[in-house]
From TrEMBL:
PROSITE patterns: AA_TRANSFER_CLASS_3 (PS00600). It comes from the Bacteria. Its EC number is 2.6.1.96. Gene3D superfamilies: Aspartate Aminotransferase, domain 1, Type I PLP-dependent aspartate aminotransferase-like (Major domain). This is 4-aminobutyrate--pyruvate transaminase.
Length: 450
């Protein structure tokens, strides 16, 4: 790509520092400048149109250009553009959205606390776990169990619960209160000749052995995504979640389910906890809560979790935490309208109806000589790529992702996989278009690497 002086690309390279990139590389190459979006499509500043196969960052449930969300945002801006929820004050949109979240939660819940991102929500949930342990007099019960390959954000606490080296290296993370157990992806970590049932038993033994090693009296909570997203769309093995919950109950350890990616229809149910039979104490949500039209996240908690925290705030005199934008009226108004649209248009049902076609399309792609296997649930999936013997890890998947972009499809390569998470509004015909672009990209890369 030739970058002209004073172009938008040149100004971006000169002034903006980007997340999740090689910064020196970005200074030389720049990035793709997206200017507009419509439905499942986005268009760059040269006029090229792409299918957004990852829904932005796993998040634009309604697709791009939903006018009802723009209208609600404008109306709320004009009525009350900002107010806070500090010091015994509140406003209508946050009340209405909190009520809806409690009512649609997959298990009985009590209260909702709003934040602005998944990282922020997981970070606060961690603080609340520690606050609650202190409230109960369990001063040593502070450790958090995350999982290898799990992703929960990039703040100091949420980044420490995350189990990905790229989010730890050179940041002095993880904190020593955070420990990690095995990743339950049978495809990646099953031993030769090991059945899936035996793999699940080994994963559960790893978890219980870690608890006993650290001391159950020191462990406060277990964090887990129902399906691991940013780790590469990693599916839990059969029986895994039932076994995990039995172990946590045995040792009085809280369960925090991170549904930042999975929530609000992605798996064919409103929440992945319903799909996989998970009954959490705390549910963390973001992304599809507002289709990412506004920064918004929420911590939904049951009464067992909430009551000791409320008691401690009464003893101290205050719950000493808050963000300026917590429960922002424009964000919560947009979130409320977004969830209404998901319900009115039966987009959760759309996912359930399209799941067979989506997973079947991935399975067909897995027959390509460059592919290894496929996996997924609902409209969340991955195509595992065979690594190249003469290249670095992940190079094959990166080459295919780049070829997909050339074909007019934006997806994401993670490790040896290319991952898919299209907007919930996608149609059967558009799934064919998306996977057609992948098939062409696979052939292009195969020919170039022959």
């Amino acid at each position: 790509m030739t970058i002209m002086p004073n172009s938008v690309e040149a100004r971006d390279m000169a002034y903006q520092m980007h997340p999740m990139v090689n910064l020196r590389k970005y200074e030389k190459t720049g990035g793709l400048v997206i200017e507009s979006g419509d439905g499942i499509y986005v268009t760059d500043n040269t006029g090229k149109r792409y299918i957004e196969g990852l829904a932005g960052l796993w998040s634009v449930a309604l697709g791009f250009g939903e006018k009802r969300l723009a209208e609600v945002a404008k109306a709320q801006m004009e009525k009350l553009p900002y107010y806070h929820s500090f010091s015994y004050k509140t406003h209508g949109p946050s009340i209405d959205l909190a009520e809806m979240l409690v009512k649609i939660a997959p298990v009985p819940m009590s209260k909702v606390h709003f934040t602005s991102s998944g990282s922020e929500a997981n970070d606060l949930a961690c603080k609340m776990v520690w606050y609650r342990s202190n409230a109960l007099g369990n001063k040593d019960k502070k450790k958090i169990i995350g999982r290898i390959k799990g992703y929960h954000g990039v703040t100091i606490a949420s980044g420490s619960i995350t189990g990905l080296p790229r989010n730890h290296e050179s940041f002095d993370l993880p904190l020593d209160r955070m420990v990690h157990t095995s990743c339950p992806s049978y495809v990646h970590f099953g031993l030769e000749g090991e059945s899936e049932a035996d793999f699940t038993k080994r994963m559960l033994k790893d978890l219980e052995d870690l608890i006993l090693k650290e001391g159950p009296e020191t462990i406060a909570a277990f964090w887990g995504e129902p399906v691991m997203g940013a780790g590469g769309v990693l599916m839990p093995s059969d029986g895994y979640w039932a076994g995990v919950q039995a172990i946590l109950k045995k040792y009085d350890i809280l369960l925090v389910a991170d549904e930042v990616i999975c929530g609000f229809g992605r798996t064919g149910k409103m929440f992945a906890c319903e799909t996989l039979g998970i009954e959490p104490d705390v549910l963390v949500v973001s992304k599809q809560i507002s289709s990412s039209y506004m920064p918004l996240s929420a911590i939904i908690m049951n009464d067992h979790f909430y009551q000791p925290i409320a008691d401690e705030s009464d003893r101290i005199g205050v719950f000493g935490h808050g963000f300026t934008a917590s429960g922002h009226p424009v964000a919560t108004a947009v979130g409320l309208e977004n969830l209404k649209i998901i319900q009115e248009r039966d987009l959760v049902g759309n996912v359930a109806r399209l799941e067979e076609k989506f997973l079947g399309g991935l399975a067909e792609l897995a027959k390509h000589p460059l592919a290894h296997s496929s996996r997924g649930v609902g409209l969340l999936g991955a195509l595992e790529i065979k690594p190249w013997a003469d290249a670095n890890a992940g190079d094959a998947a990166a080459a295919i992702a780049a070829a997909c972009q050339d074909e007019g499809l934006i997806i994401r390569n993670i490790g040896e996989a290319i991952c898919f998470c299209p907007p919930l509004i996608i149609t059967a015909e558009q799934i064919d278009d998306m996977f057609g672009a992948v098939a062409r990209a696979l052939d292009t890369v195969a020919a170039a690497h022959a």
